[in-house]
Design brief:
Structural class: alpha/beta
Helix content: 40-55%
CATH architecture of the largest domain: 3-Layer(aba) Sandwich
Number of helices: 12
Order of helices and strands: HHHEHEHEEHEHEHEHEEHEHEH
CATH topology of the largest domain: Rossmann fold
Length: 347
């Protein structure tokens, strides 16, 4: 076993020995070090904090994370789309009907749906989804947020105390984001998703803004973003590549499917950016991306590569072709633009 660094031990030989023994009993060899660190953190917190509120927060957060991981673990290989939108949208509204059509067609294609579990657009998302192919991440509020009746499997409802844990699970367990018209909560989730991708704290994903025909909701939002954020240089021009406005369910589904047509996933390994692909791309596309996106490289070229040693060690996507690059870890809008170019490869 690789020994944990001295500075992250308790410093009491008996306690450190007990933690090591417990970690060995409850974890696999490859996870033993991480479990020991978690246990060490818990002991440190218990010894250092006399604030019961702090301990309750950590306790509840850890419980919510553990429960969420357990619920999603059997479905990690299935692509999932998170639906955001107003809890106050009426059943007769265009966005409600659009959300219902969207999730019905997505689940027929094999995707799973994740909603906030409430009424309005979230209800429509669960209603449209095929039975057993949807999750609901409900937040406990003093008003307005009870689980909707269209969730077929009650074990796929997760009730959260904390918004921040709920938001983490929204991002961690899904592969695409669909935003329908909504209020503060919808914009909060949308801007956070854009911020996470813009800053590299979340992996690239398709973000589609669903706007029923005849609506100007997201067009008006984009005008604000362009006229105030872009014009004042608060964002870069390339950041507009992080989202797409769709007027129909079919257009939105195509955008999501196209995002994963060639691109599969990304991994950062020891300063190297590894992009896994669903198929080999042509030499023509390799030349194109090296020419058009050399500005986002810290050095060298974009090149083909076998799996890295770290990926082999963790058995990650070993059957997929790869390209690797010394990405500057800055221009994530341009990185998403490159993914769209790669997805247009027709070899």
């Amino acid at each position: 076993m690789r020994k944990i660094s001295k500075e992250y031990e308790i410093g009491d030989e008996a306690i450190d020995s007990a933690i090591s023994e417990l970690a060995k009993k409850i974890s696999s060899p490859e996870n033993e070090r991480l479990l020991r660190e978690i246990l060490t953190t818990a002991v440190k917190l218990g010894r250092e904090s006399n604030d019961k509120g702090d301990l309750k927060l950590v306790n509840n957060a850890l419980k919510e994370l553990r429960h969420s991981f357990r619920i999603f673990a059997p479905y990690r290989d299935v692509k999932k789309v998170i639906i955001f939108g107003s809890a106050r949208s009426k059943k007769t509204s265009a966005e409600y009907k659009m959300a219902e059509e969207f999730t019905k067609k997505l689940t027929q294609k094999g995707y799973m749906i994740v909603t906030g579990g409430g009424s309005g657009v979230m209800e429509a998302g669960n209603k449209g989804a095929e039975a057993g192919k949807e999750f609901a991440l409900n937040i406990r509020l003093p008003f307005e947020q009870k689980p909707n009746p269209y969730i077929d499997e009650k074990d796929k409802i997760i009730n959260f105390k904390y918004f921040f844990i709920r938001k983490l699970i929204f991002v961690k367990e899904t592969d695409a984001t669909a935003l329908f018209p909504g209020g503060f909560g919808t914009h909060d989730e949308g801007f956070e998703m854009l911020t996470l991708i813009q800053t590299g704290k979340s992996k690239p994903r398709p973000i589609v803004l669903m706007e029923p025909k005849g609506s100007a909701y997201w067009d008006a939002w984009k005008r604000y973003v362009t006229e105030h954020l872009l014009k004042n240089s608060f964002i870069a021009k390339e950041d507009l590549n992080l989202f797409h406005i769709a007027e129909t369910a079919d257009e939105a589904i195509k955008f999501i499917e196209d995002f994963y047509r060639v691109y599969n996933s990304i991994r950062y390994v020891s300063g190297l950016t590894v992009m896994r692909l669903n198929k080999e791309i042509s030499e023509k596309t390799m030349r194109l991306i090296n020419k058009e996106f050399k500005d986002i490289l810290a050095s060298g070229k974009i090149r083909r590569s076998p799996p890295t040693n770290k990926e082999i060690e963790e058995r990650e996507c070993l059957n997929l072709p790869r390209i690797v690059m010394n990405f500057n870890m800055c221009n994530y809008g341009r990185l998403c633009e490159m993914i769209h170019v790669i997805n247009r490869d027709r070899s």
